[in-house]
Design brief:
This protein is an all-alpha fold and 59 residues long. 73% of the residues lie in helices and 0% in strands. It contains four helices and no strands.
């Protein structure tokens, strides 16, 4: 299944996927649907960047 790296990155950083969805301005269910299929590289990088940012804010 695709996008496991995004899920692992979020979990390892202590960031919930609903927080990522909120930062993207979409619902958590919409993010969940997006993660079912391989994302384009630019979208993948945006999500990983948001995860890094949210993890820094939590510290």
């Amino acid at each position: 299944m695709g996008n496991q790296d995004i899920k692992r990155a979020a979990g390892g950083a202590g960031v919930r996927l609903w927080q990522v969805a909120d930062a993207l301005g979409i619902t958590d269910s919409a993010l969940s649907r997006k993660l079912r299929k391989k994302l384009p590289d630019d979208e993948r990088e945006e999500i990983l960047s948001i995860i890094k940012q949210l993890s820094r804010e939590a510290v």
